[in-house]
Design goal:
By secondary structure, the chain is mostly helical. The protein has 2 helices and no strands. The longest helix has 104 residues.
Length: 135
């Protein structure tokens, strides 16, 4: 099977479009010249469209790169802020643990003191009972 190339196809279209007679508006141009002009125009239009498309792709690529850079910068800032907040929360938690430890230590001291006093009172009562019993 034969492959039809784009230039051959464009030539065929140009020839069909122009016919095989001399142009009425330019009597010096024959069908082959008209077909050549049509192909040249089609090629120029295709090249212009390709350049415009490439320019649009370049612009879109530049915008995407700028957006990615901005997003990365914002993400970095968010991570820094989250790290700062986490550090502050950890410092607050550490301060709370130290305060609660101090309070628990104080409670233990008070409890030990109370237990010692209660033990002392119990021993004193026991001693009194022993004295009363021996009288």
């Amino acid at each position: 099977m034969k492959k039809i190339t784009i230039p051959a196809l464009m030539l065929a279209v140009a020839m069909v479009a122009t016919g095989c007679k001399k142009a009425d508006d330019n009597p010096n141009m024959g069908p082959a010249q008209e077909a050549g002009a049509a192909i040249d125009n089609a090629g120029a239009n295709t090249a212009a469209a390709a350049r415009e498309g490439a320019e649009r792709v370049d612009a879109a690529t530049d915008r995407a790169a700028a957006n990615m850079e901005n997003a990365a910068e914002r993400a970095g800032e968010n991570i820094d802020q989250a790290t700062d907040r986490a550090g502050e929360k950890m410092r607050e938690a550490g301060a709370e643990v130290r305060q609660e430890s101090r309070e628990a230590g104080q409670n233990i001291k008070e409890g030990a003191s109370d237990a010692t006093a209660a033990t002392g009172r119990a021993v004193e009562r026991a001693g009194e009972k022993i004295q009363d019993a021996s009288k």
